[in-house]
Design goal:
The chain has 21 helices and 14 strands. It is of the alpha/beta class. It folds into three domains: 45-154 and 196-356, no CATH class; 166-192, no CATH class; 383-539, 3-Layer(bba) Sandwich (Glucose Oxidase, domain 1), CATH 3.50.30. α12 crosses α14 (296-305). The protein has helices at residues 14-17, 22-33, 38-41, 63-76, 99-115, 130-141, 167-178, 183-192, 205-216, 231-250, 254-257, 260-272, 278-290, 296-305, 320-325, 328-336, 352-356, 416-422, 459-463, 523-532, 543-551; strands at 46-51, 80-85, 120-125, 145-149, 156-158, 161-163, 381-385, 388-394, 405-413, 435-438, 471-473, 485-486, 507-511, 516-519. It starts with 13 loop residues before the first helix and ends in a 25-residue tail after the last helix. Strands 12-11-10-9-13-14 form a six-stranded mixed sheet. Helices cover 36% and strands 12% of the residues. The structure holds FE2/S2 (inorganic) cluster (FES). FE2/S2 (inorganic) cluster is lined by residues 59, 91-92, 127-128, 165, 199-200, 204, 206.
Length: 576
Amino acid sequence: MAAKHRTAAELRSHRWLGAQDLRGFGHRSRMQQMGYAPSEFAGRPVIALINTWSDLNPCHSHFRQRAEEIKRGVWQSGGFPVELPALSLSETFMKPTTMFYRNLLAMEVEEMLRSQPIDGAVLMGGCDKTTPGLLMGAISADIPALFMPAGPMLRGNAAGETLGSGSDVWKYWAELRAGTITPAAFAAIEGGIARSPGHCMTMGTASTMTSAVEALGFTLPGFASIPAVDSRHAQAAAASGRRIVAMAWEDLKPSDLLTAASFDNAVTTALALSGSTNAIVHLIALARRAGVPLDLDRFDTLARRTPVLADIRPAGRFLMEDFYYAGGLSALLVELGDLLDLSARTVSGLSLGEAIAGARIFNTEVIRRRGNPLTPSDGLAVLRGSLAPDGAVIKPPAMEARLLRHRGPAVVFEDYADLAARIDDPALVVSAESVLVLRNAGPVGAPGMPEWGQLPIPQKLLRQGVRDMLRISDARMSGTSYGACVLHVAPESAVGGPLALVREGDMIELDVPARRLSLLVEPAEMASRRAAWVAPRPRITRGFGQLHRLHVTQADRGCDFDFLEHGAPTPEPEIH
Ligand code: FES
């Protein structure tokens, strides 16, 4: 299809900068106040660089430089770049969790784009929630936008060991608690596990979401895999700057790209990567913003047919740097072939199939062939049953296979503080067969559904050699984590889901092949417990926390705010 081409007078920014009236005078005079001659901005697409850089976001510490490179591309193509700082959502430092603030970033982006003279946007993100937050806002604003991913950091390294973000933290923390490594060895890991700018380089939420968003069509081909400090990443930034100017002229908007097929492509990609369970929440939120049907059952359907091809930690052995050298995401998408809709449109102006044509795999250990997958299916599994009527999720490739079918007695923790206080208590009655249950860790209860779902294994079991056991919560889990962790239980306990009614010693049964999660308690007993249940007091009752509590949806709906899901568009601002 031939791309359309808007005239300068049809650009959105023309309403601010082109009008020969009092307001136009004001806007142009203030541009000149900043040192720009009219010839530098008149009639050019105004391109916003939504930059989630901050001094507290190590994953984006190269974004000031990348912004300059994006601007270079914008200028080269005749656009006018404006850099707009946005909430940084530093996964490492924000408490209780960046997820609590994802929707705040999304609102900020939507309103920044809508209220200002912007014709196109480059969304600069990568650290976990920045990717969905930026995209959710851009989808709602429906202004031409492309995503420029931060890129993964280099492999970690200490004492001759290759280290992966998160995954090796959990692994060596468990070994330290088990007494099998020394504090000095652990300190050496601390110094070497994050040694360059860029997002986590395991297949955590960051790598999963940047890859899924590329498959969704929002990133120029191949860019999600380039390590943050590779010179090709800087070149990708400039190329993104050049392309967004063309998109602004073409008026190629998110609504032109997003279909059920493009979301299937994103989900299939996340599954083939054995990606983070967080992607389920985020992709559902994105789809609901776009008005495209996508639910938990679609993930399960696609999981049953999608092989895991990326041998990347925590499910596999390698890291994102290896993935890039092995051919990167484009090569993996070529290998997925008929499991994708290659006719889906992308920001490149090409179909997905055209965009990845010619990519090939250079290392079939890192990117497996379909005939030799890491696992033939079930990168994720959606569970339902009496303990999770609206669904829960688990990541089978990242757990010990003996736990795929398991029955055991519950050990219940009321909230995270209770867990922290008692998990290593020598008096805790627990065995390897027990099922650890954490409640009040969901979207409303925590609040913000933190990544507490990889409950630590009790120290006394670690010392017995136990490294995995069944754990259940209404929390999320970092994509860099692993283990038999049932997550996103919906409805959550704080709103009265069955998780709220579990008692110490209740038998719980997990059957992943049957996709079932059952609390083996008689209905009459459940009814009497429900009648006696009292909702916990909210932890935050003012400000953004209050807004969040009143409007956040449950995990199976994406944890967006109910009033931000797809609906009538907000009108363009009046300019008076
Ligand atoms: Fe930023 Fe992991 S801390 S992606």
